[in-house]
């Protein structure tokens, strides 16, 4: 979710008085960091994943499933090992937006050894078990992108009613109690984003039109709803969903920028490949991914700004970072020239200066009184205030002041998967791609406008197999800049004249000294990625859609009832013990291990 600062939150009216102060000092803090750390070299590869979970409570008597508002209760217990011994904690836990959500990461970053890839899944299993042990028997921690009936009457336990008159979101559907109450950031962001834009959040998701779906689909007493759209009206309908993210430490700022640029065209491809969100507020939608919903959920733009600033602060990136890749920045970048000039005068090159200046077109929407006045030589909270609320497909992360942590890149588009095996497969595939890109000097660059076009396509129903995406024809040559429309199967598995990403990763692995257990595990992960791209196994979105539309209680009206929701989530909770061949094929048992064998670290 971003920077969690302790203190007294300011309202939007109070915050906007300090907007210029935060921006001016935030830019200076970045300049100071850059000057101090731009020549830093030789950091080793370290990386880690973030998995977000939803706590689900089952009422087996009434066949009802609800989100359990238990995060504030279980997080202190889960975080105690970190407080007692940060060096030995197996997992780290953080709050997320929803009072029913928790985020888990490995206790220590993974390293450069191939064997580190073989402990990812075991750590994910351990995290899930840690969280599960804190819950009563009728509650389960699930790695689901969205609770299907989020916003329906009685969707929380304990049950709370929304209060459109006095709540921070003014939502018809999402009560304040569903927002995590253990840190003021979440409610503050909710209130301030709504206040800044001058209206409630407005999310419109196209309905899936089945045989008995009303035509047009219009809900009574919701004047804001557009015909044939599922209307959502709160930040919780975006930030209350879950994702899967990976962060890499690069050896230098140059390598970080190169990774940022080369991973950018892969964002829509991985979004489609991990699609997992077909249901919103109890209705089946005509999309498979959550991206547009979460983008609209934090859209703080005022109406008069939308012509100049065309995207929400949660969206795909707008420019590449490396100077040599500027020719691919074919969309005019909006920024304040005064900010850009200050950055250039501070020694920042034009490509990085325009990136940072573009981030700073956004106002701070969460500010704490204790953090207004800072030492720009020692602090970076003003920079992080803006940086951490630009939730984009990629994030370029400078080293924190006074920290051993290096320059990092965060890969952010993926939807969380239903099982630890799938999440580990996605994470390890992305990590292996970064190593393959750097080892073979690959180039995935496309015009930014084509990446944006791909992002729009990636979210459609079954876009993984029904859409074609712009992709570079020759990723092994920087001179041949041509690109064409390809299926994701072609991009992942290859075609005549184009090697494919999985075969390239296989070539990279064959050049490495990989132990037998790790090799076995990675082959299973790559097989899953390859089969999903081919259509041999399904995305979570397709599986969920098929489950509910084939349920005996389904009336072909696009409605997901309490009973259907209960049965769906119960089946998801059992996937670890009872795998589904449509999701996983014939494999789900890797040779993952909890620790790297000593012999491999010598």
Write up what this structure looks like.
This protein is of the alpha+beta class. Helices cover 36% and strands 12% of the residues. The protein contains 21 helices and 17 strands. The strands form 5 sheets. Strands 1, 2, 3, 4, 5, 6, 9, 14 and 15 form a 9-stranded mixed sheet that branches. The chain has a two-stranded antiparallel sheet with strand order 7-8. The chain has a two-stranded antiparallel sheet with strand order 10-11. Helix 10 (337-345) packs across helix 11 and helix 13 packs across helix 17 (501-510). The two termini are 37 Å apart.
Quick summary:
The chain is α+β, with helices and mostly antiparallel strands. The protein has helices at 12-15, 19-37, 71-84, 120-132, 184-197, 236-239, 253-263, 267-273, 291-297, 337-345, 350-359, 381-387, 420-440, 448-458, 463-466, 488-493, 501-510, 516-534, 540-549, 562-573, 581-584; strands spanning 46-59, 64-68, 91-95, 101-106, 139-142, 156-157, 203-206, 229-232, 244-249, 279-280, 283-284, 314-315, 391-392, 394-397, 408-411, 469-472, 483-486. α2 packs across α12 (381-387), α8 (267-273) packs parallel to α14 and α13 (420-440) crosses α18 (516-534).
Q: Could you outline the blueprint of secondary structure elements for this entry?
A:
Elements: H1 12-15, H2 19-37, E1 46-59, E2 64-68, H3 71-84, E3 91-95, E4 101-106, H4 120-132, E5 139-142, E6 156-157, H5 184-197, E7 203-206, E8 229-232, H6 236-239, E9 244-249, H7 253-263, H8 267-273, E10 279-280, E11 283-284, H9 291-297, E12 314-315, H10 337-345, H11 350-359, H12 381-387, E13 391-392, E14 394-397, E15 408-411, H13 420-440, H14 448-458, H15 463-466, E16 469-472, E17 483-486, H16 488-493, H17 501-510, H18 516-534, H19 540-549, H20 562-573, H21 581-584
Parallel strand pairs: 2-6, 12-13
Antiparallel strand pairs: 1-2, 1-4, 1-5, 1-9, 3-4, 7-8, 9-15, 10-11, 14-15, 16-17
């Amino acid at each position: 979710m971003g920077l969690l600062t302790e203190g007294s939150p300011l309202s939007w009216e109070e915050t906007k008085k300090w907007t210029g102060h935060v921006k001016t000092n935030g830019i200076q803090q970045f300049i100071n960091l850059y000057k101090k750390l731009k020549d830093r070299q030789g950091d080793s590869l370290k990386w880690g994943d973030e998995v977000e979970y939803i706590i689900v409570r089952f009422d087996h008597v009434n066949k009802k499933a609800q989100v359990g508002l238990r995060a504030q209760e279980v997080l202190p217990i889960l975080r105690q090992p970190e407080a007692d011994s940060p060096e030995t904690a197996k997992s780290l836990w953080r709050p997320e937006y929803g009072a029913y959500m928790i985020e888990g990461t490995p206790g220590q970053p993974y390293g450069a050894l191939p064997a580190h890839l073989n402990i990812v899944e075991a750590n994910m299993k351990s995290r899930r078990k840690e969280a599960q042990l804190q819950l009563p028997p009728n509650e389960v921690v699930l790695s689901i992108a969205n609770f299907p009936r989020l916003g329906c009457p009685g969707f929380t336990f304990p049950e709370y009613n929304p209060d459109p008159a006095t709540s921070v979101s003014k939502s018809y559907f999402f009560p304040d109690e569903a927002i995590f109450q253990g840190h003021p950031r979440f409610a503050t962001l909710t209130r301030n984003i709504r206040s800044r834009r001058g209206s409630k959040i407005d999310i419109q998701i196209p309905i899936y039109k089945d045989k008995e779906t009303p035509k047009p689909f219009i809900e009574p007493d919701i004047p804001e709803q557009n015909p044939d759209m599922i209307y959502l009206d709160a930040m919780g309908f975006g930030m209350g969903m879950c994702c899967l993210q990976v962060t890499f430490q690069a050896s230098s700022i140059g390598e970080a920028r190169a990774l940022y640029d080369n991973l950018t065209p892969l964002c829509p491809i991985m979004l489609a490949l991990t699609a997992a969100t077909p249901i919103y507020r109890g209705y089946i939608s005509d999309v498979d991914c959550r991206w547009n919903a979460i983008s609209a959920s934090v859209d703080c733009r005022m109406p008069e700004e939308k012509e100049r600033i065309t995207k929400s602060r949660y969206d795909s990136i707008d420019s590449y970072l490396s100077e040599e890749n500027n020719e691919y920045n074919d969309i005019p970048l909006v920024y304040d020239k005064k900010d850009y000039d200050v950055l250039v005068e501070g020694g920042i090159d034009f490509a990085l200066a325009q990136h940072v200046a573009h981030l700073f077109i956004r106002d701070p929407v969460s500010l704490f009184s204790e953090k207004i006045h800072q030492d720009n030589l020692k602090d970076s909270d003003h920079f992080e205030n803006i940086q951490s609320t630009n939730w984009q497909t990629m994030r370029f992360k400078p080293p924190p002041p006074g920290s051993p942590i290096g320059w990092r890149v965060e890969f952010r588009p993926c939807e969380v998967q239903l099982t630890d095996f799938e999440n580990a497969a996605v994470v390890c595939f992305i990590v292996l791609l970064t190593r393959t890109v750097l080892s073979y000097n690959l180039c995935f660059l496309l015009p930014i406008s084509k990446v944006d076009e791909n992002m729009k396509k990636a979210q459609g129903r079954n876009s993984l197999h029904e859409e074609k995406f712009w992709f570079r024809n020759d990723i092994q040559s920087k001179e041949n800049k041509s690109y064409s429309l390809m299926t994701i199967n072609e991009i992942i598995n290859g075609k005549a004249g184009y090697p494919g990403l999985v075969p390239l990763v296989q070539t990279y692995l064959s050049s490495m000294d990989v132990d037998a257990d790790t090799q076995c595990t990675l082959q299973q992960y790559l097989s899953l990625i390859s089969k999903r791209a081919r259509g041999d196994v399904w995305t979570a979105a397709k599986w969920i859609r098929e489950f509910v539309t084939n349920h005996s209680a389904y009336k072909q009206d696009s409605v997901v009832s309490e009973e259907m929701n209960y049965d769906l989530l119960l089946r998801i909770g059992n996937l670890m013990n009872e795998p589904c061949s449509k999701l996983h094929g014939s494999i789900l048992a890797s040779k993952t291990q909890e620790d790297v064998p000593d012999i491999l670290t010598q």
